[in-house]
């Protein structure tokens, strides 16, 4: 047994995952760090029973006052704080993120718990003026029922927490189908959640949060069930195209957070040193495997050569290696398929006129068995087909522009619409970018890269990104059912719009 497996087993044991859970099943979990087998999990066999449990849990949980539901989420936040180092390390082992990003992901969970605790006392509805005398209108928000969460390997814990912290305070149980590539992080979250439940006491029904393990079949059962009124799915556009219509067909609600093809416009006035730092973090962080990763750089022609030279230099010194080594900035891709996809994207870029800097597999000085690469910068003559495709790898396509209208048009001319940004010190350009005629994305930043959003804002995007919003702002409303109430305290029955109907 090599050293890494020992480390993994120690971390898993501290997180309460013991051999009886980790062994004996058919789903093999491997670490992207070195391909080591971490576990063989049993797949969930009886989805009907899982959904039935969630339904029963809903009946009880909706009766618990929202601020008290918030107390459970407060305890979850406390347990996450206590487990932060171990859970962060498990994310690094299972998803291949560098240690700081693994920890950062757990911090994102803690942050959304804090947010949701406050929100639990603010499930506000409006009071609306009625057109009729002696009447009052209002809007009330009610729990909606079990929420199904489908998450991807690249944010194996935070995405669950955005959905779960809100779903719980809104009065709903959660069923979580994590990526088959990162189920251990999910099982660890379940243990942490159960610690919080134990401290919370009897008000929390059994089955308030359940994890289901397996492939597309397991997810499909949940997606098709009318007993799971909300499906929040994060992953590829292909997955969203399969999930969305099934949920719509049964008139369920889906919250889709799918692919991104995020751009940065760099204007002539930009602070180039700051832009370089933002570019490198957004394009290379998480080895280019965030849905918010920077994939397209649209640079003013007057600074293009200078900026590309600075980037090529910065990229050359990036430490690629084991994500468990604190000096590493670029960990592995999730698996060998991801490496193949990256290489074929680079080959296509060359055919389409691209000049590729870097991008080759790295085998020296990295653990054997992992898919390590040097991040790539690709100078492109135009925004051709490959640039319009999201490849989940550290490839940054660079294109030039000469006026801002053209840059914004290029920024918007891709099928995806998640995140975007502009680097400029020109106030007109900055305001234009976030105006009605600017970026068409769900996220548009000024002098900040497109990735690494805080939880306080609504997270999600337009077009093929799916239109869903999760996390902060008023995203909680998607986890509740809205009711319009008209209250008549008069002794008359006037009809709206002046309609007469006397009997
Ligand atoms: C994702 O990649 O699915 O904004 C989520 C970010 C993170 C979340 C990314 N806070 O990069």
TrEMBL record:
Superkingdom in the source lineage: Bacteria
GO MF entry, a single one: aldehyde dehydrogenase (NAD+) activity
Keywords recorded for this protein, A-Z: NAD, Oxidoreductase
The UniProt record lists the keyword Oxidoreductase: yes
Alphabetized Gene3D superfamilies for the sequence: Aldehyde Dehydrogenase, Chain A, domain 1, Aldehyde Dehydrogenase, Chain A, domain 2
Family to which this protein belongs: Belongs to the aldehyde dehydrogenase family.
Protein name: aldehyde dehydrogenase (NAD(+))
Residue numbers annotated as active site: 257
EC number, UniProt record: 1.2.1.3
Record note on quaternary structure: Homotetramer.
All copies of domain Aldehyde dehydrogenase, residue ranges: 26-484
